[in-house]
Every structure is written in structure tokens, then in C-alpha cells.
Amino acid sequence: MEAGKRFLECCCTSVYEALEAEAGGALRIELCSDLSCGGITPERSILEETLSKVSIPINVLVRPRGGGFIYSGNEIGHIYDGIEMCKDLGVNAVVIGVLDSDGNVDIEAMAGLMEAAGGLRVTFHRAFDECRDPFKALEDIISLGCDRLLTAGHAANVNDGLRTLKKLNEAAAGRITVLAGSGVRPENIAHIEGYTGIMEFHSSSHGPDGLTSRETVARMVRRG
To answer: pLDDT per residue over 67-106, tens digit each?
Structure first.
């Protein structure tokens, strides 16, 4: 990473957006579809094309539907299928997360998914922000072996979760990378970084047209 630049992961839904993110200086892509519901697993064809045209690492959201994060056996099966697709195509990481009916991380389901993802990095996604106890969930996610935790600080938006983000990053103590996301924009990213000590950020980095913009990305990654 160049000196004076932040680490930004861009959430993208198309090859065009991924190329814009890369051109603006993003260092990683999270590829998904249908952001209107929070994102679901992208089609294989979109993933294949993006992998062929983008040189920075690509993480893939593997989520069978929008809505909550308590899944049926059939839906868990779809997550396994998505992980297998990602392994077959050689992506950088999968982005997954399952909760149980009590609002805890579903350890049993996640352990099986982690085993299936062997060889890939794993980010636990913002299902975390709907869990009952964020600090217990943090320890569970670390114990499962996840590499990253994507969170707005147990809130809908990073601006509302700022204090908890700071506490989570301190509690993580380098055992997992806390990735701040949801509402991260050029106007607040420096404050989030300075207040929480978090070093990686996740944003769609949309421009006026509602799509990822290289100009917005460049403003996000540039310090000073």
C-alpha cells in the first residue's frame, strides 16, 4: 500500500464498478448482487468476468437472500454451493455469517462453513450487527478462525456505532482485522480512522449516479 493512502475495500455489483474502484485506488473488492436488500451472492458469470478484468483481490459475499441471518437447512446448502463456486474460481475470500435463533453466532453452522472454505480467507459480515452481544460474538468469530469482521459497530451505520467500533477494535487486539463499513464516506472516514484506530474500511463509494465512482474512491483512500 502506498504511503499516505488508506486501505479501502469497495462493495461492487458489476465489472464496471469493480474497475472504477480499482482505478480510484481501492485495494480490494467485495463483489455481490442486489445491494437494495443488503447484498446476495453474485452470479458466476459476473464473478468470472470480474476476475478476468480486475487485478486487485476479490472477496465474494455468499448470502442466499436478503433479510435476517437465521437460515434454513436448504439456505445453508446454498451457502455451501457459493463457497464451492468461489473455491473453484480462486477468489481471495468469502464473506459469510450465520446467527442462531437466540441472536448468537451459529457456531455449529459456521464451523461447517469454515471447514468448507478451507484455503480461502473468511470475513464474517454484518450479520454481526444484529447479534445479541457484540463482544461475545467477537470472541466466537475469532475462535472460528475468521480473518476479518465487517461491522458498523453493532449499529445500522458507522456514525451511530463509533464508540462500539473503537471498543471492538481494542478488544480484537490484533487477533482479527476489524473492517468498518456501512455509511463510510469521504466526509467521515478520517474521523472514523482517528477515533477508532481501525485501518481497513468498506464502502460502496458511490458517486452522484449511484454507482461506484473512481473519484469518490480516490477521495476515500487519500489522506490529507
So the answer is: 999 999 999 999 999 999 999 999 999 999 999 999 999 9
Rounded to whole angstroms, the Cα distance separating 162 from 30 reads 22
> In which element (H, E) is residue 65 found?
none
Which among 187, 191, 153 has a CA at the least distance from the CA of 170? 153
Residue reference for cell 470472541: 139
Instruction: Give alpha helix (H) positions in 90-203.
Output: 107-116, 134-144, 162-172, 189-196
> Which three three-digit cell numbers place residue 20?
472504477
SS3 82: helix
* Close Cβ partners of 132 (under 8 Å, ≥ 6 residues apart): 102, 103, 104
Distance CA 203, CA 187 (A): 12
Cell digits for 22? Answer: 480499482
**Amino acid at site 181:** G
Q: Round the CA-based radius of gyration of the chain to a whole number and report it.
A: 16
Q: What is the pLDDT of residues 87-98, one digit of tens each?
A: 999 999 999 999
Is pTM beyond 0.70? Reply is yes
- The neighbour count for residue 95, using CB atoms within 10 Å, is 30
In angstroms, the CA 165 to CA 160 distance is: 10
